[in-house]
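quick q for whoever's on today - can somebody do inverse folding on this one?? i tried earlier but teh output was garbage lol. tokens:
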């Protein structure tokens, strides 16, 4: 499960158990708080399989931890074709594991961060919710009418609908891709549900930059991301960008979501953040 005592964990766990109770063939043999952490999930699952070996487990319901569970099964010698069904979490690593075995389009795959054909569903609270909240707050300050209640659909990905983003461009996400190349996203625990038609400001670079800087190196994070609506484009840009020349080739006279915005793009001010740091 998640963090005990939080409303999200309480509601999710209660709803899941209500569904399980409708099916007499489902028996819960063990449960443990996972704290929405891959590391904690590994510790908890290690204790569970000590008394309930993998041969006694037919499936897992986890709020976070399917990537870890599949990895542990592999370490136990279980072949890809015999992995237990696992429901839960929207991590990039989990969705990569859901891709068909031998998918040659995946770049940067290694160890258990690779396509396995793992039988799963992937769902999670979408990370774009923070950007949407900020956007709505700005609209309120501008005097615009905003609904009192905003419902965010939980992105649901199955083995039939999992789709690899080749480069992570906005147009790819708009077309339905929902998992990113390991060569681009090195952290398998990174949550992949960043797309929403309501927040075109949030591209892959912006989402991955904010996550990396907050987790690994706050002191060296970029000074700022461009504000919503800057230059009239309504986009937020992150680090590790392409050059402005590449931007022109990709998007005409303004920057793509892969580029950092340093002032209005129409004046040719899109440049590499890495170059600027030198």
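ok took a stab at it. sequence:
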């Amino acid at each position: 499960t998640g963090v005990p005592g939080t409303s999200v964990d309480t509601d999710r766990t209660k709803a899941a158990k209500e569904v399980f109770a409708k099916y007499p063939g489902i028996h819960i043999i063990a449960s443990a708080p996972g704290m929405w952490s891959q590391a904690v999930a590994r510790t908890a699952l290690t204790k569970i399989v000590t008394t309930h070996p993998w041969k006694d487990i037919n499936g897992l319901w986890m709020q976070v931890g399917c990537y870890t569970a599949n990895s542990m099964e592999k370490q136990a010698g279980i072949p890809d074709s015999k992995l237990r069904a696992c429901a839960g979490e929207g991590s990039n690593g989990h969705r990569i594991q859901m891709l068909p075995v031998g998918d040659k389009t995946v770049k940067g795959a290694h160890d258990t961060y690779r396509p396995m054909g793992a039988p799963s569903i992937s769902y999670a609270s979408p990370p774009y919710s923070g950007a949407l909240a900020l956007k709505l707050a700005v609209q309120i300050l501008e005097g615009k009418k905003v609904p009192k209640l905003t419902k965010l659909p939980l992105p649901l990905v199955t083995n039939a609908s999992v789709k690899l983003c080749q480069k992570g461009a906005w147009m790819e996400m708009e077309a339905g891709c929902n998992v990113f190349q390991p060569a681009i996203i090195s952290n398998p625990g990174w949550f992949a549900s960043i797309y929403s038609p309501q927040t075109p400001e949030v591209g892959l670079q912006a989402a991955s930059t904010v996550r990396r800087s907050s987790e690994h190196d706050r002191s060296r994070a970029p000074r700022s991301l461009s504000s919503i609506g800057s230059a009239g484009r309504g986009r937020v840009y992150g680090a590790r960008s392409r050059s402005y020349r590449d931007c022109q080739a990709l998007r005409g006279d303004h920057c793509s979501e892969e580029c950092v915005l340093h002032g209005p793009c129409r004046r040719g001010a899109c440049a590499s953040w890495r170059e600027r740091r030198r």
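fwiw The longest strand covers residues 120-123. also The CA atoms of residues 102 and 240 lie 29 Å apart. so keep that in mind when u check it
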